[in-house]
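PROTOCOL LOG
Step 1. Enter all chains and additional molecules of the complex.
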Amino acid sequence: MLEEFSEKVSYLGPETSFTHQAAMKMFPKAQLVSMPGIPEVFKSVENSSVKFGVVPVENSTEGSVGVTLDFLLESGVKIVCETSLDIKHALLSEFKIEEIEKVFSHPQALAQCRNWIASNIPKAELVSVSSTSMAAELASKEQKSAAIASLMTAEKFGLKVLAENIQDFSFNKTRFLVLSLSEIPNAKKNKTTIAFSTMHKAGALFNCIKAFKVYDINLTKIESRPSKKNAWEYVFFVDFEGDAQHSNSQKALEELKENCIFFKTIGSFPVIQ
Amino acid sequence: MLEEFSEKVSYLGPETSFTHQAAMKMFPKAQLVSMPGIPEVFKSVENSSVKFGVVPVENSTEGSVGVTLDFLLESGVKIVCETSLDIKHALLSEFKIEEIEKVFSHPQALAQCRNWIASNIPKAELVSVSSTSMAAELASKEQKSAAIASLMTAEKFGLKVLAENIQDFSFNKTRFLVLSLSEIPNAKKNKTTIAFSTMHKAGALFNCIKAFKVYDINLTKIESRPSKKNAWEYVFFVDFEGDAQHSNSQKALEELKENCIFFKTIGSFPVIQ
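Step 2. Run joint prediction.
Step 3. Record the structure below.
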């Protein structure tokens, strides 16, 4: 479906980031273009300098990526595909484990390996940097330091792998979205993401999600984000199983809209395992 | 209620942080103790080395503080009070605004002032550090640099205020929670926080929140967090108006529990304006 696409695809970089790995998995023949931030991925899709963009949307232990949700709301791009990757961290260094005095990594990676660090390198100073790639670069330059990053990053910076699979939760996964201005032709869409706001009164959210119950549609995710219009007002992001164009989904969404002050379909799309 | 309390209260530091300011507002006579992180505030309350702890839980533009929600779930402490503060940022420096080449701040503060920075100091390099207090310290030492932080931080580090109220959203507020092992005697509790998990089937969340509709109870917040037990399973945090001991709340929570596989009351508490 996406495997044969050979043009440009942007992703949240730097090179060897987990989003890069997700982009390589889905687009093995494309020209992958690294972007410094999530806003830049959205912009590159919006202004058609790339056909597709890849961003992270949720980690199974750390939760949603707020910036991605905020841009899905504001931007004109659609979600056209989703995939997920197992997130496995490794300790990388040019030194021996007992020599390590300092460990560089992204704050999320440090958080995901908290117990392993406490058990294995309890005295090491932990330094948060902006990416695991940056961490590996620093570890390759500084004496008695290490990085927590992926095996792919180890290869790029020529670091040894001192320990593998050091994340505390065995089911550490991240979901990634493919963004585009137009849907993938003939794709079997089995998931939909919508966003809506309810009136601020008792039972408002209940009335909104009642429609899914009535039409027996399974919600896989509900998440609230600040509306950024008034303090303590929210936009709800809902993922459900099925295509928004199916008859049952259409009926449910029509009922939902009657109880909303804002509604947006962000995309119906296939999920690639 | 809390004003006369004169013993120890821990807060998310460092000194002059917004949580410090929230703690000073609620506990003007207490001995305030700075903690390096949110987990340390919870631990200091759990092991009774302080009577109360103060942590941030939600910002009106950036959303919930995930670490606070995760610890509310795992810890034995209760929420016993809530307050909110207007979050106002200022540009602080020893130099003139046209001389500024580098700006230090916490990443959330940089995000909250993104538009002002782009309009007023577009060429400045932005450097993320772990607190606005750390940012001010660095700005007081480095040539041609500035910090984005509060007015209180300016006083502490002897920096000039180059611009005030530079946050992009006029309604930028943060909610803070007071944590304790025991409730405040005779407090009028007008808000409750609960957490629950539903079965993974169509209509499960609907069945859980139906009870609030039936008993005409207003939900002020619903938020999902990863369960950390299995990938893509969630715990819902719900805030509602009223005391969990009121007759209507008790009935609603009894009905809710019948549809949950996990349920916890995290506290009923007064809201201090």
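Step 4. Note key features.
The longest helix of chain A spans residues 247-258.
The interface with chain B takes residues 59-63, 66, 128, 130, 169, 171-173, 201-203, 205-207, 209-210, 212-213, 216-226, 228, 230-232, 234 of chain A (CB under 8 Å).
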